[in-house]
Structure formats: C-alpha cells, structure tokens
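Task 17 of the worksheet. Students: predict the tertiary structure of the chain below and write it out as structure tokens. Keep your answer in the requested format; marks are given for formatting as well as content.
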Amino acid sequence: FLDSGCGACHAVRGTAADGQLGPDLTHVGGRHSLAAGILPNNVGTIAGWIADAQAIKPHNKMPSFNTFTGEELRALAAYLANLE
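Model answer:
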C-alpha cells in the first residue's frame, strides 16, 4: 500500500499513509460496500476497483491503476480487505 503510493491520496490511521484527497481507508474492510455503495465489499471488487475504477464509475477521483501484476493487485486488495 505504502510502496505503491496509495498513501499519497488515502489515509490509514496508525500508518504513514496520510493522504487527504481520497477516503480514509482505516476500516475499509469492515464496510458493506465500495464506490459510494455501488459495489459489494470483497477482495475481488477491491482489486477490480483499483485496477479499473474509471470503467466501473466514470469520472470518479480514483484513477485506474492497471500497472499492477496480478500478484501485486491480489496482495493490495487482501491488505485493504483486512483493514477492519
């Protein structure tokens, strides 16, 4: 998460991630939905959102990050899903 630059936009309390542009992700894994309620919250949808947020919800503030390998994307999504 930190090495990928996500903390530049998102905060996760208790870490060096202190971004203000995007939502605070401290407890994102405990939410019922993502993307203002349009997606169920699970590892697969988190990964899909990271990889191609603009295809899912055009013109939102989250850019699509389609540069991650599958392994990196799964690890990042699993990390976020565990933030409860």
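Marker's comment: The first strand starts at residue 33 and ends at 34. The first helix runs from residue 43 to 56.
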